[in-house]
Amino acid sequence: MKKRHIALAALAVIGIGAGTAAYVAAPTIHEGAPGEMPELGRYGEFAVGTQEVEFALPDRVTFTKAGMVTGSTEPEERSLKVRLYYPAEVAGSEEQVRYSHTFDPPNMEPVTLDYSGRAFVRAPAKGEAGSLPLVVMSHGFNGWSTQFSNLAEHIASRGYVVASIDHADRKLEGVTDFVHSFSTVLASRSLDQRQVIAQILAKTDSEAAGPYTLIDSDRIALIGYSMGGYGAIATAGGDYDYDSGTFSTVPGDALTPVRAAAKEDAQIDALVAFAPWGGGPDNRVWSEETLSAVKAPTLIVAGNQDDVSDYENGIRWIFESMTGADRHMLVFREARHNIVGNAFEQSQDVPFQAIEFVNEPVWRQDRINGINQHFVAAFLDLHLKRDGGKAAYLDVPTENSNDSQWETAFGEQLNGKLAGDDEAQHWRGFQRRWALGLEMYSKPAGE
């Protein structure tokens, strides 16, 4: 197949699906003019450095297509690339990052994605040793490490070290390849997350140079999207129900290390799950009992029309069942599965499959990004930095954002203000008239 080469300024989100097209990217943060971003969705005080590293993951096994039938496994030398983002010292001569990824779905021409970020390549880390929380990010099925570059850079700009994993999911060529690739993901996502965290902390403990020195190993958050969320919930303590028929294509010996790892505390202090997969009745991988074992404060983000992870019977069931954790669930009304990821503008001749794969049918992707950045920043600051003032951004006065109240003076319509202490009945940090189309549900541990 002929490979296209296309320049981009941002990137699309990949969950489960396929599509390709010519893309022109739209910026998700306005330089010097934050525009419609809610308050905490705006870039932080730190310049951001970035670098790619690679970790060898020990004692792994894999299986072939035949192994799905025979149950046989074989040793695997597994290594994964991880993209680091961190507060940096920028003198002005550093190179601003350009990312590249080849998107190669089945039955379509591959597309090489080149896109610019705001981080600076290998800029020196800035900050006191052991002073910053670690945030690990895990993408969806057949995604890649920089699919969340906007969110990762945003978090780092607010004083965190971010590590985004490239899980190197097996390439898809047809139905049997899909089943094989997906089955290996079922057995590998949580193990990848656990081993990457362990390797990063080992470097932190050994006083390795660069961004590792900034990490406070007692403050760790995990963010996962779709299959990354499936793995993240398990890593945070929600072990799987291995009798679930969902695991029928995974050899038992491939699940043995997953079972063993689940007995070890991964020390996750905060969990964010975007559209987590695995709760729907047809593919449920947990029980209410196993989900109740998650103790870390949790933020779930979902679209109420998600037909991949099944919002009503899957994602909501996960939220309701995580009774061991203080938790919030942010809902984008009328959104489906693509509720996280950078914004794209498509050319007029873009195939509809590509539009469906990277965009939401109703919401603008850049609007979604700003709202996600706002709430993730509040959640991480509250639980990893112990900034109690951020609770007001999550403990909203009305479950339905449309019910927010903010009095308008006679003759006043536009003012650009953000809701603060004086607007206690409005969703904090949002502009007047702009807190719309959202729901926020909250439950304390034990409920």
Automatic annotation (TrEMBL):
Signal peptide: 1-21
SUPFAM superfamilies cross-referenced by the UniProt entry: alpha/beta-Hydrolases
Stored InterPro entries: AB_hydrolase_fold (IPR029058), PET_hydrolase/cutinase-like (IPR041127)
Any GO MF annotation of the entry: hydrolase activity
PET hydrolase/cutinase-like domain location: 259-342
PANTHER family noted in UniProt: PLATELET-ACTIVATING FACTOR ACETYLHYDROLASE (PTHR10272:SF0)
UniProt protein name: Dienelactone hydrolase family protein
Organism: Erythrobacter rubeus
